[in-house]
């Protein structure tokens, strides 16, 4: 059966808000941390499209095969490709799939198979549902995926703001990085930021184990501070960086950091994970860095963890001269996957 919608189409997007909106017009869902994807299934073949309108099938061949097997009828689904690990969603494993070698992709597909979490229904059979209000699309999605087997899952949803607030607090750290609010009367609006996302923002105290110069201003301006946390064995690991300083502050940092600079390789993430050098992800950028004795502590905010690293650059808040470096451990940000997340994936392979 030919579908009424052909790829590629832009997904509907979300704008960032500071708090979860209230009112009877909203439906709330957990915000999944994976690859946004639209699935086109015509009854026999499945096509997986990325947020930037490109095919994802090459990187998730096992998911394509599973979609053909478990989807009940022709559907166009909006959702998220995820990989569930022992401690929650594993974005690192997901990124590893984007690899040029097909043999590598096939190996990873067998070791860490992907799942698809659906949260909207754009078409069913020969019906284009994009003009229908979200309340109708969600009801149709519930019916279409009733009894569907792994690795396709239906995202939880609630109209109760108190439940959404509870999710926001308890799901943090398990690979779910906030809550999405959707108006029940909204049609599907490709490319429009019609939804609202509320993301976590946490603080943590980190050791400054090194720094990088500002490109073109080497020796006169600091580009970024390299941040570390201690594991249970007392080893300092690089977890991310912060560069949220004004131009004058970056110049002033030179004198401040000079007193802590060292060539001793036992300092500055000695023995632990280091900031690393150029890779296919850095595209030839200068990734050299200078070591510091692990004596400076700063407080930063971050929005999400990718494994045991910050997904994005952290934001500097203040120096913590009152905090001993040894107290800056991973235990500050430890989290346990919530019961609901384990239940959703209880039937996965």
Q: Can you describe this structure in just a few lines?
A:
19% of the residues lie in helices and 32% in strands. The chain has seven helices and 20 strands.
Structure description:
- The chain has 2 domains: 13-199, DNA ligase/mRNA capping enzyme (D-amino Acid Aminotransferase, Chain A, domain 1, 2-Layer Sandwich), CATH 3.30.470.30; 202-333, Nucleic acid-binding proteins (OB fold (Dihydrolipoamide Acetyltransferase, E2P)), CATH 2.40.50.140.
- It has helices at 61-70, 91-96, 102-111, 134-144, 161-170, 247-258, 339-344; strands at 13-16, 26-32, 35-41, 46-50, 75-82, 84-85, 88-89, 115-124, 127-128, 152-154, 176-183, 193-199, 202-213, 222-230, 236-242, 290-291, 297-302, 305-306, 309-310, 315-319.
- The protein has 7 helices and 20 strands.
- Helices cover 19% and strands 32% of the residues.
- The strands form 5 sheets. Strands 3, 4, 5, 8, 9 and 10 form a 6-stranded mixed beta sheet that branches.
- It has 349 residues and is α+β, with helices and mostly antiparallel strands.
